[in-house]
Design goal:
The protein is of the alpha/beta class and 223 residues long. The protein is built from eight helices and twelve strands. Strand 4, helix 4 and strand 5 form a beta-alpha-beta unit. Helix 2 runs parallel beside helix 3 and helix 6 packs across helix 8. Bound molecules: calcium ion.
């Protein structure tokens, strides 16, 4: 899953981006409203963390423009403490949730998990596919109750497929949702990571749909 973080406080943005990275997300960071708006308008993020007080273009304007243009990704806004009117304006402008500063990192992570869960129609933080379980709270994966060690990119790939279980996901969609904008996307191919996941989890769950991409199939039937 790939997130956009728009926060002009550079130190805070660095801390949040580090925590999001550790939680298994690819993260792009923008430090002003214009850049944030541009990225959210052109890149397919799974969720956005948007500060409201931003230079160049304020967060409410950014959010309003995205929504006017039909950009429907989940957005968590960061508001100043005790500014209830900001929360109301933000939600009315199309925010899905808000967090008042200062906040605990764990709360931000829990709210993002909830947004991603809702966006993909899942009821629980633990995603399952046959004997595979992925816990989005701990970023841990198990196979038949035994822990499976995955690299950050393997985890991201599996997490994206599990959130979109049963649907064919193209290679280009995977590339867009697994890597941040600074990543050299040419040097790593999705096929390599799919191969590694199959070796670790069994070949039958991630199916290749010729010419279209991959599908995670909980029945494990090889098509
Ligand atoms: Ca700010």
């Amino acid at each position: 899953m790939r997130l956009l973080l728009v926060e002009d406080d550079v130190a805070l943005a660095g801390q949040l981006a580090a925590a999001l990275g550790e939680a298994g997300y690819a993260v792009d960071v923008a430090h002003d409203g214009e850049e944030g708006h541009f990225l959210g308008d052109t890149e397919p993020y799974d969720a956005v963390v948007l500060d409201l007080g931003l230079p160049k273009l304020d967060g409410l304007t950014v959010l309003g423009r995205w929504r006017d243009d039909g950009r429907a990704m989940p957005v968590l806004i960061l508001t100043a403490r005790d500014r209830w009117s900001d929360k109301v304006a933000g939600i009315d402008a199309g925010a899905d949730d808000y967090l008042a500063k200062p906040f605990h990192m764990e709360e931000m992570l829990a709210r993002i998990r909830a947004l991603l869960r809702r966006a993909s129609g899942h009821a629980s933080n633990e995603l399952r596919c046959g004997p595979i379980r992925l816990d989005t709270r701990t970023a841990r994966v198990s196979l038949e109750d035994r822990a499976v060690g995955l690299t950050a990119l393997e985890y991201r790939l599996l997490s994206y497929l599990m959130h979109h279980q049963g649907r064919v996901v193209s290679r280009s969609e995977l590339i867009e949702h697994l890597y941040d904008q600074n990543f050299d996307r040419d040097s790593n191919t999705i096929e390599v990571f799919v191969g590694r996941l199959r070796r670790k989890l069994g070949r039958q769950w991630i199916q290749t749909v010729r010419g279209l991409g991959y599908r995670l199939d909980p029945s494990g039937h090889v098509s």
